[in-house]
Amino acid sequence: MDSHSEVPAEHRGRPRSETARRAILSSAYSELRRVGFRQLTIEAIAQHARVGKSTVYRWWPNKARLLFDAVNSLQDSSYPDFGETGRTKDEILIEARGVIEYFRSEAGSAFLDLVAESRFDPPLATSLTDEFVNSRREATRAVLTRGLEQGQVTTRNLDPDVLMDMVWGAIYYRFLVLHDTPEPEFADQLVNQIWPLVQEG
User: pTM score, two decimals?
Assistant: First the structure.
């Protein structure tokens, strides 16, 4: 009996499949940066990765989901999480600075490309909302709720959604509308100017 026959059938082929999957993600990201979302096709990704289209569709139902995974799974720089400091303002500030630093990176720039294109591509918009936006807003809401419980957020009429729009909306506006590349210090200016509203009696 040779060494191959000793490998259980359910395990044979998995390393090769994972290699193909990584090649597809890498190709998708490379092609996204080269031609942009609208011009990119599954055919081009498959050809670049040297796999068949059916292999691509084995893991991803559409181009939007594939590119979302490519941007978020392949890069060393990922969208930041909140730092747990026990101080609500500092946690919001850490997140805001991290978002700006991420958007200044190559991976962040690719992510912003997807955000911009999501207006014209319903599957992409759905992927962004389901896989990213909802969870990020819930995380921010949890930080603000904890701040209310601890007495660090004192305004009686706080609307978490409006506060989130004020902070994250300003950052997205700078990058996507003004085509600016703000320094992380912009987060300090933003949060410091907004925070008195959070602590009104």
Answer: 0.77
